[in-house]
Amino acid sequence: MKKKLLTFLLAILPILNFAQESSTENELSTSEKIDATFKSYTGWFVEGIFSEIKFGSVDAKVTLDLTNETPDNYSREIVGDTLFVSNILMPSAKIAEEVETTAQNVTVKEGAVLAIPTAALAQTSEVTVDAWSPYAKIPWVLIVLIGGALFFTIYFKFINFTGFATSIRVVQGKYEDIEKHGVDTLYGEDTTQDEALEAIEEDGADGEVSHFQALTAALSATVGLGNIAGVAVALSIGGPGATFWMIVAGLLGMASKFAECTLGVKYRDVGPDGTVYGGPMYYLTKGLKEKGAGGFGKVLAIIFAIFVVGGSFGGGNMFQANQAAAQFVKLLGTENENAGMYFGMVMAVIVAVVIIGGIKRIASVTEKIVPFMAGIYVVASLVILGFHFDQIGDAFGLIFEGAFSGLGIAGGLIGVMIQGIRRGAFSNEAGVGSAAIAHSAVRTKYAASEGIVALLEPFVDTVVICTMTALVIIITNFDGSVMQYGVEVKEGVEKTAIAFDSVIPHFSIVLTIAVILFAFSTMISWSYYGMQGWKFLFGKGKITDLIYKILFLMFVVVGASISLGAVIDFSDAMIFAMVVPNIIGVVLLSPVVRKELNRYLNAIHKKHEALEEGADDLAK
């Protein structure tokens, strides 16, 4: 174990070393050093995880009339002595690298903007650009995520819809008695009341948290900046139609969450002190071993554990701290270069107080924070939608029209579909396997009970909260004051803030607080995810735990202090690399999930029958 820990520490020392170095006028800044170092060593990995499968080719050409000052198929703006041509509206169009024109010095910027010197307009009246055919490039990891979700939806007979009402009742505690003691103990045909009471005293369910606490702990890791900033970015690229496909991704993801979280409980380890160790690492190892593929399962589990640890330090920590610090500094309006570092130190202390207490402390915090922050956000969204009640129908009209036509967005129908599905899948993390770690700590004797609860997570995260954000932006953007569809925005939080401020003055202040709370809750939940992966790799012990927690807290400060482009790209790639071993394992173990589902549904049915018989006897 010591050798493994030493190797890991040597691997991350460059980050900490660079974070401590100061920049000079003639040297690269700290952020640039980290970016350059990480990109040189990890760029291949990031490109591999997010690489796209090409569907279609450049086979169309569109001519733009530059003499028309009010064109209907593109946007134009003259800045100084340059004409900028952008947002070209045509079926599935995208500016290619080559531009046909007689004008000189015509350049392409970022694959989406033409820059033409106004002096050149005297030489040419039009330009011809290449346009993609009505197909798109699809990230392969997205195909795996959605493919898995479709498989689980069909295999479990649309559990994402048929199990919805049951999931609500489970969260309400309707079946807490049978989950804690077993249906046969309480409602067995041959069990007397005295025997049942004796069994209850001796036999209780393993686990550390309730269904609601497990749900909020998992939600706190997914409900966050993606719901605020990510939706705005998706709309800027894919237009209103992306919302429809985002909802589809959320609904399909419910089946993935059900399957992986059922397995998380089924194959968890419970220590002598009642501490639970669960997640894909355990069901990949134990579940596949039962199928005679123990070696394969062990390899998949180790790969997953490495990815979850890396993801917890980056996307689940540094990125969250960085964005929260940026919003906080922006709110203060200070130019103090150390403000981010001070914010990170305070955040690290607060995070430390929570994560030192383990999943019980994390769950007790998230069960209060998540409903509170989500409630404020949803209420504010409802206020805006109520203020623009007469425009909601028009907003949905744009959503459905854009979902199936593309509305001239680059990539057309497929492009819009990809943006929506990508945002939905990446926001709720269904299929990634991370949520199974939190859900595995629940108190229950029936693994499928938590799987049914978990399917609510993508619904709340994507179908409700992301859709709320999208509707607010679409309605407040009818006049084009928030964004221009088809032109990607970089600062999604700012665009969402503009949309909210247009109806609720200064709500951006509340939104900043929400961003900080979202970031905080995501960090504490991902600390638990990373800790579980760390323990699987390096063993369970106080020293092992302490080393991980110290490293995690150090990365909070690092993340809040500097810009981490390449590091965050790498950590995000690690998070979505978790999809591969997880989906493989869950698909292979699907029969086990179905068996657990039938076992739990039969227990519920048996309880209902016993209660009905008791009511009949009482009536007699």
Automatic annotation (TrEMBL):
First and last residue of the signal peptide: 1-19
Keywords on record: Cell membrane, Membrane, Signal, Symport, Transmembrane, Transmembrane helix, Transport
Subcellular location: Cell membrane
Record's keyword annotation contains Transmembrane: yes
Transmembrane segments: 138-159, 299-319, 339-357, 369-389, 395-418, 452-475, 507-529, 550-568, 574-593
Superkingdom as given in the UniProt entry: Bacteria
Keyword Transcription regulation: no
InterPro entries noted in UniProt: Na/Ala_symport
Annotated membrane topology: Multi-pass membrane protein
Similarity comment: family membership: Belongs to the alanine or glycine:cation symporter (AGCS) (TC 2.A.25) family.
NCBIfam families noted in UniProt: agcS (TIGR00835)
Protein name as catalogued: Alanine glycine permease
Species in which this protein is naturally found: Neptunitalea lumnitzerae
Gene: dagA
